[in-house]
Every structure is written in structure tokens, then in C-alpha cells.
Amino acid sequence: MGDVAAFRMQYRAEHIGPRYSGWLHFATTSVVSLAAIAFAISRVHAPHAWELAMVPVFFIVANLGEYFGHRGPMHHRRRGLALIFERHTLQHHHFYTHDRMAAESPRDFQMVLFPPIMLVFFLGGLATPLGLLVGFLGTPNLGWLFAATAVSYFLSYEWLHWSYHQPESSWVGRLWLVRRLRRHHTIHHDLRRMTTVNFNITFPIADTLFGTSARD
Ligand SMILES: [Zn+2]
Ligand SMILES: [Zn+2]
After folding, report:
1. Which of the ligands is closest to the CA of residue 114?
2. 143: CA distance to ligand 1 center in Å?
3. Is the sign of the CA dihedral 103, 105, 111, 116 positive or negative?
4. Can you give the residue ranges of every domain in the chain?
5. How far is the CA of 165 from the centre of ligand 1 (A)?
6. Fewer C-beta neighbours within 10 Å, C or N terminus of the chain?
7. In sequence order, which residues have a C-beta less than 8 Å from that of residue 208 and are 6 or more positions away?
8. Greatest CA separation for the chain
């Protein structure tokens, strides 16, 4: 407990600038993602049923991406991705532990939400090229549906993860879905278990598939 308090104090002093606003960070992530989703959907024209039927498949692909990204580079130092490892394993997991899950003020959102540069990377460096590839190999509609699903997934990740790190007594913290999914993520936040169980942050589909889901 004392360790977490000390870590938080030092992290805030070193990494969270005086002009940082947690709510502005939250709003930027939300507005930019929602605009990208709306744009992608607006580009879908008279989709065939089989094209729409691919949306759940894209959702599962995103769930696997979340799983392997988290199980891999977020918890194991990989060349070129060391920053992700540092921010997640060394910082996020020490700022928030299984017995200290909640942010103490909106300034602590800085240690939950991805920094804006990662938002640019997800949208420009991941969703766009993959959407183009899907559009090129399949149909333009498929490409836009992929982009819309990928960014929607990213935003649900951000919103859900943020809600697990709100006080349990807050209105978000009391929502049924948040309580259920927070239990899954809280077990993962135990420093002794973070490299072995509960790698899905949103819905524990891949965890169930690969036998890494822990409930106790
Ligand atoms: Zn977390
Ligand atoms: Zn983790």
C-alpha cells in the first residue's frame, strides 16, 4: 500500500504536467475516435449482408489483437516497443495495483488513457493501413467496416479500462457491466499474476479461448 502511494507521488511529480487536464484527455480520445467512426460509417454504401456479417469477425480479430498486444509487448520488453512496456508494466501496473485500483483525481487519468500520440498511431498507423488492405483484398465497404469496428473497439477499450480505474462507489464504478469486467482486470493487476492471467481488457474472449482466464 505504502509503495503505491509513494510511486504515485513520484510519478505525478515527474510525468503529469501542471497544465494536464484528465477530462480534456478523456474528451480528446472520445471525440477523435467518434469522429473517425462516424466518417468510416458514412463511407459504407448499400452494404451486402455478407459484408455486414464480417463485423463480428473483425470484432474477434480486435479481441485477439488486444490479447496478444497485452500478453506480448505490453508485458515483455521488445525492441522498438520498449516504450509500451515501460508505460504499461513499469508504470500503469505500479500506479494501480489490485488493492489500489482507483484514480484519486482526474489528473490520474493520465496513467490510464493512452497518450494522444498513441491515438494517432492506432488511427493512422494501424486502423488506416489495415482498413486499406481489407478494402483492397475485399471490397471498399469491407475496408470501411473494418476501420469502423477497429476504432469502436479501441474506444470501448479506453472507456472500459478508464471505468475500472474509477472509484467503485462512483456512478460508472457501480454499473453492472463495469463491476463484472473490473473483477477480471483487478486480478490481472496483481503484480504476481500480471504476466500469466487475464490479458483481455474488454471482454475475456481470447482469455477463455487460450485458458488464461482467472476468476478468483
Ligand atoms: Zn489497468
Ligand atoms: Zn497488464
Report:
1. 1
2. 31
3. positive
4. 2-209
5. 7
6. C
7. none
8. 58
